[in-house]
Amino acid sequence: MFKNLAAACITLLLCSFAPLQEKVDKIKLTLISKSLHKGQSFTVKSDLYYRVSGGTMVTRFTSPFEKIVFTNANGEYKDYNVKQNTVTLMQGFDLSSKNSLFYSFFSGSINDMGLAALGYKLVSTRFENKIVITTWMPVGPSKIIKKAEIAHENYLPIFLGFFDANNKPVQKSYYTNYQTVGSIKMPFTITEFDYFGEKDSLITRRTYTNLLLNAAVEDTYLNYKIPASAKVISPSTDKPKK
Question: How many CB atoms lie under 10 A from the CB of residue 170?
């Protein structure tokens, strides 16, 4: 009895000294996006800021062009060109930060990777070795996408694919290089394949580095205010509105 009591006391004492997991609210990452299309490569560098509470996302592009893109959970989208002092305003669910990688992981929706919110329903589940593959279909009519598949390994998504009526891939995404961010794990490398035809595709690899959390993240861009003097650009014409 006394041995059990002593063991319990020791366990309680050790737990009291265990470091508490800090809740993540602010994130900053460096993002390098490399694309390859028809033998030509293109690299875009940016700093990405995300606030978990509220879903505010700010992307500051640094090379080869300079601009700041803002979006939130409501789908409000602002694209600010710093040098030209112009801003493009748009809004829509497809522009919402809820469709971002960060939202999927921090909201705990990695089982469906946001497909349910986009109007997809789960139709089947199968197992291949230790990988769980789920198949999803759009509830409403879809001109191109007829089904989607998600593959999970060790409860983490490693693949997301969209397919047409002929079961040919429209887009494939592979999630690798998982790293710990607070209390969750996130992929720091994403490789995407976009298919435009039999022999035409775009390959994009996104690599995240230089992780900063909470107090280490400056609020400069999360609280950035676009100048009132910025000219509003129409998304359809790319010309300033009068």
Answer: 16
Task: State both tokens at 213.
Answer: 């959390």
Encoding tokens for residue 187?
Answer: 């992929």
Report how far apart, in Å, the C-alpha atoms of 164 and of each of 54, 120, 144, 192 are. 34, 14, 6, 17
Structural domains for the chain: 20-233 (2.50.20.10)
Parallel, antiparallel, or unpaired: how do β-strands 200-213 and 231-233 relate? unpaired
Closest CA to 132 of 121, 122, 117: 122
Residue indicated by tokens 């490398």: 189
Q: What's the count of helices (H) and strands (E) in the chain, helices before strands?
A: 2, 14
Q: What is the pLDDT of residue 143?
A: 81
User: Among 15-19, 52-56, 107-111, which stretch is predicted with the lowest mean pLDDT?
Assistant: 15-19
Give the pTM: 0.84
Q: What is the C-alpha to C-alpha distance for residues 167 and 133, in angstroms, rounded to an integer?
A: 16
Token reading at 113: 């990777």
DSSP string across 118-185: TTEEEEEEEEETTEEEEEEEESS--SS--EEEEEEETTEEEEEEEE-TTS-EEEEEEEEEEEEETTEE
pLDDT in tens, 156-187: 999 999 999 999 999 999 999 999 999 999 99
